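Worked example

This section walks through a single chain of length 343. The input is the sequence exactly as stored; nothing has been trimmed or padded.
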Amino acid sequence: MILGLSFSLLVSGCFGRSTAPLTTPSATLTRPAGPSPSPSSPIRHTPTPVPSPSPTPSSTPDPYADLTIEALRQRSYGGGSIRIERVLAVTSAFTRTLIAYPSDGLTIYGFMNIPRGHGPFPVVIVLHGYVDPQRYSTLAYTTRYADAFARAGFLVLHPNYRNYPPSDEGPNPFRVGYAIDVLNLIALLPTLPMAQPEAVGLFGHSMGGGIALRVLAVHPGVKAAVLYGSMSADERKNFERILQWSGGRRGREELSTPEEALQHISPVFYLGAIVTPVQIHHGAADTVVPPEWSRELYERLRTLGKPVEWYEYPGQPHTFPAGSEAERLLLERSIAFFRKYLR
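Given that input, the structure is written out below as tokens.
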């Protein structure tokens, strides 16, 4: 009963705050001087042909206009609040709750780990990689990373994204919809009194790393980002790989995009605008996402003078085995990185 009362107070505390027609002149007819025509001399009127008006060409909407990095920068995010639906688990280090929030008219679900102690806390948003939506669970494989960050004292939010149950379904070309869901979540952090919205970091694995890269190209307010086995910042590379993985079932539409449009959609062409410190991890034996993609990203960011760290793990696969020394190092380095920048 005490736990129920305490949580009710937490929830009520979380949501006590909000974040002209033109006028055409009439023509005046003037009768010319001179004799009036007599009835015997009728005036013959020859009709002057009136040309048909040329059809006004209608502009064809650009199907890629809303997907570009610049369009994502210009639009607004937020509206509403992050709701705590119910408690999922209570541990000695944190309380896990189911959350829901609005994103472009959709309801997005996920979970939040609230550390023990007195907040507000710096925030880490954990972005999961690709899982078949039909087999997805809110407590996905990335839950263990979220738990480690919560035990280290971070408020952790783990969104499902659109099209991952129980979230609503919505448009998602180039996975831009997923990035919009994350950008809306960041914009709603001020509605959580236990959060420090000015101290937010991203941790993205695989597809989640690719989502994080788009968010970084759009939003300069993210203070730190950890990319683990990340997809490329180059969308053509990503969808060529996706086409291969899926046996040709996914990726064809994205790969048919004109090159000029693709250059406005792919974060790789906007790396110079990223101001967020980035830490990159990749298993050298990864057969799912090529390790050279992460090496290439590291070299590009380093050449641009960006704050970036790079760690490669010999013999490790795409997802490090749970509880392995490689995973321990990954989390130790990630936590130290977040503690450095999320102040």
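What to look for: The longest strand covers residues 195-205.
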